[in-house]
Amino acid sequence: MSNVETEPPVLDCGDDAAGHGGVEVLGARDVPLGGPRAMKVRRTLPQRKRSLVGAWCFADHYGPDDPRTTGGMSVGSHPHTGLQTVSWLFAGEIEHRDSLGSHAMIRPGELNLMTGGHGICHSEVSTPETTALHGVQLWVALPDAHRHAERDFQHYAPPATDLGDATARVFLGTLAGATSPVKTFTPLLGAELVLEPGARVTLDVDPEYEHGVLVDTGEVAFAGSALHSTDLGYLGIGRATLELANTGDGRARVMLLGGPPFGEEIVMWWNFVARTHEEIVEYRKAWQAEAPQFGAIPEVPGAPARLPAPVLPNVRIKPRRNR
Asked: Which domain holds residue 272?
């Protein structure tokens, strides 16, 4: 999924703290994907208070959305560098095409992970049969040693892991005895958890990881702190267990994200992750020139148009880091 803002904000982010304190609760901001009737997303990462959770550097949450009203997702070919995209749906279906040659469907409970290191482009369009579109789009920053990695695409449908009054689908890393086979370039944890009313779970986790809980639906207590829909609760390193409780009347669904603090500075703008402002300028120039760095997607009748890059800001884009 693209960041299709025509004027992406340049965030002057402070230094993130990855210590042993309590839960930091982060709210989301609404971002329109196109015109006044277009689908909106709620963006939790990045923001001024926090840029990263482990190597997770971007989190959009969208829906439930009726494509018959908003047009759904119709994102034409657009580029990525220096990252992996993680697509996860709760409802609906999206058709994915990329310049590696991948043509895949994104369906609920199934992971699509695309690596756009040196450069890749892709498109995403919700299918005509979709009457409700609901999911998250996440990005993972690649470490310097691998940020020019070759294009790649992985698909994985994780089984449900029984946690008593809750279930988990572990799509990245290891949790509750379940391990994902999907390759990443830094240690990561990614899982969808569904908690029945009144459920309480205690999860063994790696104390060298920091963790974030993004609430999709319901109300939960995360390490004793209240979280509501679209909130992201953050906990720093040093925790060997995490406690989650459903405090609402219905089911609660959350995304659990984790990883060791990302020790490198990154520069993010539009759909690019880089290390310097100058790299961002060159990536934009290459995309506008239709350079082979990003490849191309075969034309499909009726497909949305290729996205042009927005105009660069009149300021230097500052790096972000998790200190």
From this structure: 27-157+264-290
208 falls within a domain:
yes
The total number of structural domains that make up the chain: 2
What are the structure tokens assigned to 254, written together? Answer: 């959350």
Say whether 9 sits in a helix, a strand or coil.
Answer: coil
- Helices (runs of H) and strands (runs of E) counted in the chain: 2, 26
DSSP class per residue in 251-285: -EEEEEEEES---S-BEEETTEEESSHHHHHHHHH
Domain contains 39: yes
Q: Are residues 40 and 152 in the same domain?
A: yes
SS3 72: coil
- CA trace torsion 58, 265, 262, 156 (10° rounding): 40
State if pTM tops 0.85.
yes
Q: Please check if 264 is assigned to a binding site.
A: no
The CATH number given to whatever domain includes residue 103 is 2.60.120.10
Contact 159, 178 (CB under 8 A): yes
Q: Is 78 annotated as a binding residue?
A: yes
- Tell me the three state secondary structure of residue 70: helix
Are residues 36 and 112 both part of a single domain? yes
Cis amide bond preceding 158, omega within 30: no
Q: Is 122 annotated as a binding residue?
A: yes
Q: Phi, psi at residue 286, to the nearest 5°?
A: -65, -40
Q: Is 146 annotated as a binding residue?
A: no
Average pLDDT of adjacent 10-residue blocks, the chain of 323 residues: 63 45 91 68 93 97 90 92 98 97 97 98 95 97 98 98 98 98 98 98 98 98 97 97 98 98 96 97 98 94 91 92 68
Which helix or strand (DSSP H or E) is residue 211 part of?
strand 210-217
Whether residue 190 sits in one domain with residue 128 = no
